Amino acid sequence: MTILSISETDGLYYEYDASTKDEGKTFAFINAITGDASMWQAIIGPALRDQGHGTLAYNFRGQANSPYTNSLELTEHIIVDDLILLLKTLKLKNIVLVRLSIGSLYAVKAMEKGLEVEAIVMINMLRRIGTRIQWMNDIIPQLLAAGGPNLMRDSFTHLITGPAFAEKTRATVFVDKPDYTPMEPNSGPMNLVTHMGTTSWDVAYENINVPALVITGLHDRVFYDAVVFEELYALIPNASRVDMDHVGHMIPVEDPDALVKAILNFL
């Protein structure tokens, strides 16, 4: 297990595999708040490495195997600065940022602070925080406190994934005795989701100065708003898009093969 030490008590767990060809890219995966490096490493990372590219997957402070000081508030500022520190420490080249949901926001903010990359892949990011999304942000800590990550998952899977994935998941959701163990109030994931709702989504999309691939799962019934999406997408100077009509918010899990294909075509 490899950890970048930040202090005596804090660090970042990461998994890095270098490119095996001179022109290879280094794909740096950035989680959502409730994500984990393993999501990228099951299919997506190996598929990109098979093409000679390098990959980096890591966990935020407070996520699995990334220790943090209990008194530290895990805000967007901590997450963005940690991302910059990790990439600069590893001295990566030909970086392509691949980010899901709020992870895309952190990546854009890191670029605003001077992080240099070759390109970005933005998965289900473009949104404006209104009543519906703020409700989602505010209710997640309550659901975790009441029944842990399983209750949160079971409450929203049908709204944020495509029909095929939702149907496949039913067998694990509708059981006689679901495991709804409350999340520890002082845990890292609870710290992260508590501060997620205060994150500012005000970024200058027009200042994104590298090629950007915008991937959207059209079955996302919570975060996707077609009118808002089109407005924000039009601001990105050098953008291309892939709309997937069979999946929702969790594309890396719902159809990782389609995601890999879209990324490789983008290159």
CATH architecture: 3-Layer(aba) Sandwich
CATH topology: Rossmann fold
Alpha plus pi helix count: 10
Q: Give the overall shape, derived from the CA principal axes.
A: globular
- The CATH superfamily label reads Alpha/Beta hydrolase fold, catalytic domain
> What's the Cα radius of gyration?
18 Å
Sketch the major β-sheet.
Answer: 8 strands, mixed
Mean pLDDT: 97
User: What is the succession of H and E elements?
Assistant: EEEHHEHEHEHHHEHEHH
Distance between the termini: 31 Å
Structural class by secondary-structure content: alpha/beta
CATH class: Alpha Beta
Number of strands: 8
- Any low-confidence stretches, pLDDT <50, length ≥5? none
Spatial order of strands in the largest sheet = 1-2-4-3-5-6-7-8
What fraction, in percent, of the residue positions are helical?
Answer: 40-55%
Number of domains: 1
What fraction of the residues are assigned to beta strands by DSSP?
A: 15-25%
Describe the structure.
41% of the residues lie in helices and 16% in strands. With 267 residues, the protein is an alpha/beta fold. An eight-stranded mixed beta sheet has the order 1-2-4-3-5-6-7-8, with helices on both faces.
Features:
267 residues, eight-stranded mixed β-sheet, alpha/beta, Rossmann fold
Q: What's a concise summary of this model?
A:
With 267 residues, the chain is of the alpha/beta class. The protein contains 10 helices and 8 strands.
